[in-house]
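Justification of resources, computational component.

The compute hours requested in this renewal are based largely on the per-chain cost of generating structure records like the one below. Each record pairs the submitted sequence with a full structure-token output. That output is archived, and it is also reused by downstream analysis tasks.
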Amino acid sequence: GGKDRRSGLILTIPLCLEQTSMDELSVTLDYLLSIPSEKCKARGFTVIVDGRKSQWNVVKTVVLMLQNVVPAEVSLVCVVKPDEFWDKKVTHFCFWKEKDRLGFEVILVSANKLTRYIEPCQLTEDFGGTLTYDHMDWLNKRLVFEKFTKESTSLLDELALINNGSDKGTQEKERSIDFNFLPSVDPETVLQTGHELLSELQQRRFNGSDGGVSWSPMDDELLAQPQVMKLLDSLREQYTRYQEVCRQRSKRTQLEEIQQKVMQVVNWLEGPGSEQLRTQWGIGDSIRASQALQQKHEEIESQHSEWFAVYVELNQQIAALLNAGDEEDLVELKALQQQLSDVCYRQASQLEFRQNLLQAALEFHSVAQDLSQQLDGLLGMLCVDVAPADGASIQQTLKLLEEKLKSVDLGLQGLREKGQSLLDQISNQASWAYGKDVTIENKENVDHIQGVMEDMQLRKQRCEDMVDVRRLKMLQMVQLFKCEEDASQAVEWLSELLDALLKTHIRLGDDAQETKVLLEKHRKFVDVAQSTYDYGRQLLQATVVLCQSLRCTSRSSGDTLPRLNRVWKQFTVTSEERVYRLETAVAFHLSAEKVLQECPEQPEAFNEIEQLDEIEAVGKSLLDRLTVPVVYPDGSEQYFGSPSDMASAAEHIREKMKLVSMKKQQLRQPEPTTPES
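The structure output for this chain reads:
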């Protein structure tokens, strides 16, 4: 890789202790000398014979061989001698004697003195230089280059043969292409190898095998670049032509295959495919029958789908060829595409129409079956006698009945819509009947559809009549239970009024005015109770009338009336006791207040003692009455409030009685005499 001071290339011949084959060495030198260009050879070579590990006679033989291999190209031969070997005088004398005959100068030099003749930067480390050289890297590049040269040259010949054969007549061309259609090596691989090799050769620096150390490209590598580029250009040109030949052949083959497949698709669709559809016209008379027809149609569709898949693939292939833009094939391709599309779309439309018709029939039968089940459920509900537990259950049953009737109405409406839609589709069925008379089949289908709708209408009408009767009866029962519930509620209200009368109506008032107010409030309270009692009586009377109308015995009115009367009697007794106590309290307060307000100096004051005694008697009687319970007709007793409540109510009576007693004592005391002045 180095150069001498004349810019000549340096050739290094390392010798070893083992026997050196001169024949192999000669062949190697011939190969190495064939690499540089003639311009490089004209500058001559400097040969370094490394004899440090060899014998003198071997070195001498190598030097003499150089005369026969490269006599004119060698300018200088430097024999690197070992430090302690050979007779300097003998060897020097020998080469000096052969100088004129050899035609080049031969010098013996130690490795450390080789730099006298060659610059250190042009010598490798073996001779004390700094030139970095990786022999394995160089060898690998040469092997790649020579392999590429061999493969590319062979490939160029094959491609030229194929490409030239494509320009001849049709028969000869077909034979040529069939015989040499595929090259022995992959053109893409060879091109990739060439590009990678060229990329390495074009780099200014190369990485050595030691990693990180670089060395400058040699002349043989620079010389290989134009060769690789030239081969790559030729390969690309021939490969492009080869690809075009392959494309034309593939297009012709593809066109023939497309024509054959198109005819297969068209013949099947217009033959067996159409015959399958001609035999399928019925819609079935039930869900199961329609489903069976659908399953049969799915089998037909499955067979068609295989051919439709072929159609899609053919259509894509035709579209790709049309996009290629070859005018010679455009007319034929478009005709094939149009013919294929027309047949496939017509057959697909017929399949879709048949599928939609069967789906509509299945939906119609499904709606009819659901409606029939709804009518059966409604009829079963109407045939069962109503025995509800209360008004709420009757309301719930009535609501359920109305919902079922509404659901039946919606179902019948949906059935009419589905039936009309199905009839419309059947009327259009003759448009693609291929000339076959489908009147009989259509009439059977139409009669079946209309018969189903009429039957459902009659069943629905019968159920509606029964629902009207049941609704009236249930509304009366609702009213009956409502009256019974309200009557029971009236009893509860009256009981609550009685309870409130006993527990909260306890006060007797602090004076006559307040007691009168309490008495007036009590009368209003009694009026409310009276209204509640009257309301309950009216409800119970209505219950009797409804029971007679429904021809049934009320389960609660017989118990409610005695309860109502019993509570009302208890309330009446309690109310009368309350009125008596309030009226007594009014009389007591009026009398006491009148006496207490009179002036004792009046002459008639002495007549009040008797009145005061009467007032005390009334007050005591009232206090005694407060401790007595209310006795009901059934013998039960009930007190007003608690003992503490009664004590609080009697407190004001006792206070006023104390005032009356004090007043009576004052009246009984003699008046003091006033001294005469």
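Residues 505-668 form a domain with the Methane Monooxygenase Hydroxylase; Chain G, domain 1 fold (CATH 1.20.58). The chain has 17 helices and eight strands.
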